[in-house]
C-alpha cells in the first residue's frame, strides 16, 4: 500500500517564517522611501486591515489622505517622517535605526480601527533615509484589556464617572491647554445634603442606590464634553466647559437641584434629600485645578451654611472673614476642614454643629465620626440603657472600614443564630470593667485579650482589642454609655479619656434629652394627627385646674367661641361648676371609667375617661373621650 510522504523541515526556511507569521498575525512590509512605494508581505495577515492589496503607491500621503490611519494617530506619522528627514551629520554608507510605534489602522470593514504594534528598521545612505523594513502585529485584544484596566483604575465603580484621581488628572490637563484670553469654563462641587441620615436609616445598599441615582442625574444634566467625577462618598465634581453664559450655567445648576430634591421613605422613616453646589469660574477665580477647587469648595461651604439645597457662585468677599481664612479647608478634602475645626476646639465645634443643624441626632452622628477619625478608632458608639430590662441597646454607631457593628438587625440570624448571645456576652465583658475614675465611671481595657476566657468568643467575633466606655447620666439616672473601641490593643491617652468623659456629659445633659424631646414631639404630632381625624370629642385636662391642655379637631369645630385659661366646664359647657358625674374625683388610679354624661346641651354623651401617666407643670392629667 502506498503511503503519501511529507517533507518535514529540518531548519528555518521561508515556509516556516510564513507559517509562524500567520499564526502571530504578523504583516511584513517594505517601504521604499526613494519611490514612496509600500509593499506588503504575508498578505493573509493583512486581510483584517483596509490596505490596498500588496502594493501602495504614494504611501506617505495615502496613509493619511485615505484615512487608513486613525485621525488621532496621523500626527505620529508626520512626526516620524520629520524625524527621518531631519538634517544629520551621518556619513555612513548604511545606518540602521529601530523605531517602534503603537497606532490604529482602519479595519477591513471600515467600521472601526484596530490597534497595532509596528516595529521598523530604517536604513540610511549617506545620512539620507532610503528604506524601511517592518512588521505589523495586531494588539487589539491586548489594548482593549489595557484600556479596560485603565478605565477601571480611573473610574468610580459605583457611578461609572471618573474617580478622584482620574477626574483631577482630566481637569488639570484640560486647564493646562486652556487659554485665559479665549476660554471660559466653571468648576462645580456638588455635595449631598442629608446623605448620612439616609445611609444610617435605610442601609448602605440603599445609600449606594442613592449615589448611583445622583451620578446618573449629574451625567444627564451636563454634556458629554463636560468632565464629571465622584471625588468622595457623596461629593461630585464637574468641569463645565465653554461656559461663557453664566445664565446657562445657573439654569443647569437649578435644574439639577430640582431633579435631586426628593423625600425617601419606607413607611417608618421619611427623610428629605437635596444637594448643594459651589461654583468657581475660569479664569476669574483661578486658572489651575487647585485654585478653582479651593474657591468652589468655599462657595459650597457657603451654600451649606445658608440653608443648603442651593448653588452659590464664589466671590472674593467670601474670604473676607478672617476666621474663614484661618480655617479654610484643604482643597483635596472637605472632611479635613471639619476634622481640623473639631480638633482645635471640640466643644465649640459640637455646639456650633447643634446650632446650625438644630438636630441632635445629626450632631451625635457627625461627632462620633470626628472622634473615630481623629484618634483612629475602629468603632465609636452611643448605647441607650433601659432600666426595665437592664440592657444596653445601640442607638448611634460609627465604624471604620475594619469596625464590626453591634446592631442586631445587620446580621442574618439564620447564618448567625447566636448573635444575641454574643452581644450580651460582649456587653457583660465591658460592664465587668466599670469603676469610678477621675473622668467619671469608666470601663477602660487597653488589651481585651487579657480578660476572662469566658468573653473570648464575643471578643474575637466583634474584634474587640481594646475599649474605653463612659456611663452617661442625667441627674441621678444612668441613661446610656459612650465608648471608643479598637480592633487591636491600645493604650488610651489622657486626651482620649478626657474627651470621652466630656462628650458623655454633653450627651447626658444636652444632646440625648433634647433628642428624646424631639422624638416625643414627633410622636405627639403623629398622635395628634390620629386624634384630629376621630369623630369623637377628645380632650385632655389638668385635673387640678380643669384647664384643657389639648383638644382635637372635633372639639375645636364644635365650639363657637374660645376662652383660653378657662376650665373645661366653663370653656365647653358655660358652667360655673364641674359637670354632673364628672369622673375627675372618681379616678384614683389608672382605671378606666365609662358612663353617659349630659354636659353637651343636655344631649347624652357616651364618655370614657382615664388618668395619664405624664404631667404638665407637675399636675396630673385626665383624658376624656366623648361620643356626641
Description:
It is a single chain. The chain is of the alpha+beta class and 628 residues long. Helix content is 36%, strand content 28%. It contains 18 helices and 24 strands. Strands 1, 2, 3, 4, 5, 6 and 7 form a 7-stranded antiparallel beta sheet that branches. A hairpin with a 4-residue loop joins strand 9 and strand 10. Helix 13 (360-375) runs antiparallel to helix 16 (494-532). The chain is elongated and about 125 Å long. It starts with 13 loop residues before the first helix and ends with a strand. Residues 319-333 have low confidence and may be disordered.
Proportion of strand residues: 25-35%
Q: What is the molecular shape?
A: elongated
Total DSSP helices: 18
Major sheet: size, sense and barrel closure? Answer: 7 strands, antiparallel
Query: Ends: how far apart?
Result: 119 Å
> Helix proportion of residues, in percent?
25-40%
Parts with pLDDT < 50 across at least 5 consecutive residues: 319-333
Classification by helices and strands: alpha+beta
* CA gyration radius, whole angstroms: 38 Å
Mean pLDDT: 81
Query: Count the strands?
Result: 24
Which descriptors would you attach to this protein?
alpha+beta, elongated, six-stranded mixed β-sheet, 628 residues, seven-stranded antiparallel β-sheet
Amino acid at each position: 500500500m502506498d503511503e503519501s510522504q511529507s517533507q518535514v523541515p529540518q531548519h528555518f526556511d521561508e515556509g516556516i517564517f510564513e507559517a509562524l507569521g500567520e499564526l502571530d498575525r504578523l504583516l511584513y512590509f517594505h517601504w521604499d522611501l526613494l519611490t514612496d512605494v509600500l509593499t506588503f508581505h504575508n498578505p493573509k495577515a493583512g486581510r483584517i486591515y483596509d490596505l490596498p492589496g500588496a502594493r501602495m503607491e504614494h504611501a506617505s500621503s495615502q496613509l493619511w489622505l485615505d484615512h487608513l490611519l486613525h485621525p488621532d494617530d496621523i500626527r505620529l506619522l508626520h512626526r516620524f517622517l520629520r524625524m527621518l528627514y531631519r538634517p544629520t551629520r551621518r556619513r555612513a554608507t548604511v545606518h540602521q535605526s529601530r523605531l517602534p510605534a503603537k497606532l490604529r489602522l482602519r479595519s477591513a470593514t471600515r467600521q472601526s480601527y484596530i490597534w497595532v504594534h509596528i516595529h521598523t528598521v530604517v536604513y540610511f545612505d549617506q545620512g539620507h533615509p532610503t528604506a524601511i523594513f517592518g512588521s505589523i502585529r495586531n494588539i487589539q485584544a491586548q489594548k482593549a484589556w489595557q484600556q479596560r484596566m485603565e478605565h477601571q483604575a480611573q473610574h468610580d465603580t459605583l457611578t461609572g464617572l471618573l474617580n478622584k484621581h482620574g477626574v483631577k488628572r482630566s481637569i488639570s490637563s484640560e486647564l493646562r491647554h486652556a487659554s485665559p484670553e479665549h476660554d471660559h469654563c466653571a468648576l462645580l462641587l456638588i455635595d449631598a445634603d442629608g446623605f448620612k441620615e439616609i445611609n444610617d436609616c435605610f442601609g448602605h445598599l440603599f445609600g449606594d442606590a442613592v449615589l448611583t441615582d445622583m451620578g446618573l442625574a449629574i451625567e444627564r444634566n451636563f454634556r458629554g464634553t463636560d468632565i464629571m467625577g465622584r471625588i468622595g462618598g457623596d461629593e461630585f465634581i464637574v468641569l463645565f466647559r465653554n461656559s461663557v453664559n453664566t445664565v446657562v450655567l445657573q439654569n443647569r445648576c437649578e435644574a439639577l437641584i430640582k431633579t435631586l430634591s426628593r423625600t425617601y421613605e419606607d413607611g417608618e422613616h421619611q427623610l428629605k434629600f437635596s444637594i448643594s453646589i459651589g461654583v468657581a469660574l475660569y479664569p476669574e477665580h483661578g486658572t489651575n485645578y487647585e485654585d478653582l477647587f479651593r474657591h468652589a469648595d468655599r462657595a459650597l461651604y457657603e451654600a451649606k451654611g445658608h440653608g443648603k439645597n442651593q448653588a452659590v457662585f464664589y466671590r472674593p468677599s467670601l474670604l473676607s472673614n478672617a476666621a474663614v481664612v484661618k480655617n479654610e479647608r484643604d482643597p483635596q478634602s472637605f472632611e479635613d476642614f471639619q476634622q481640623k475645626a473639631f480638633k482645635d476646639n471640640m466643644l465649640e465645634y459640637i455646639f456650633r454643629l447643634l446650632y446650625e443643624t438644630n438636630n441632635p441626632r445629626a450632631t451625635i452622628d457627625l461627632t462620633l465620626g470626628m472622634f473615630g477619625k481623629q484618634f483612629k478608632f475602629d468603632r465609636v458608639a452611643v448605647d441607650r440603657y433601659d432600666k426595665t430590662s437592664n440592657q444596653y441597646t445601640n442607638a448611634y454607631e460609627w465604624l471604620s472600614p475594619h469596625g464590626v457593628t453591634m446592631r442586631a438587625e445587620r446580621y442574618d440570624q439564620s447564618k448567625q443564630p447566636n448573635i444575641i448571645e454574643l452581644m450580651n456576652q460582649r456587653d457583660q465583658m465591658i460592664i465587668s470593667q466599670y469603676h469610678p475614675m477621675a473622668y467619671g465611671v469608666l470601663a477602660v481595657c487597653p488589651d481585651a485579650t487579657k480578660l476572662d476566657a469566658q468573653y473570648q468568643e464575643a471578643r474575637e467575633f466583634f474584634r474587640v482589642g481594646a475599649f474605653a466606655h463612659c456611663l452617661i447620666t442625667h441627674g441621678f439616672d444612668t441613661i446610656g454609655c459612650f465608648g471608643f473601641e479598637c480592633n487591636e490593643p491600645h493604650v488610651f491617652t489622657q486626651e482620649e479619656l478626657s474627651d470621652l468623659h466630656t462628650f458623655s456629659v454633653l450627651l447626658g445633659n444636652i444632646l440625648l434629652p433634647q433628642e428624646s424631646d424631639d422624638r416625643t414631639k414627633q410622636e405627639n404630632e403623629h398622635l395628634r394627627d390620629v386624634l384630629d381625624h376621630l369623630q369623637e370629642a377628645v380632650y385632655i385636662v389638668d385635673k387640678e385646674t380643669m384647664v384643657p391642655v389639648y383638644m382635637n379637631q372635633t372639639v375645636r369645630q364644635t365650639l363657637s367661641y374660645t376662652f383660653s385659661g378657662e376650665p373645661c366646664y366653663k370653656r365647653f359647657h358655660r358652667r360655673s361648676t364641674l359637670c354632673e358625674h364628672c369622673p375627675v374625683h372618681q379616678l384614683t388610679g389608672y382605671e378606666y371609667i365609662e358612663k353617659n354624661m349630659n354636659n353637651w346641651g343636655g344631649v347624652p354623651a357616651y364618655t370614657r375617661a382615664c388618668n395619664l401617666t405624664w404631667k404638665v407643670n407637675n399636675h396630673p392629667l385626665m383624658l376624656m373621650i366623648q361620643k356626641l
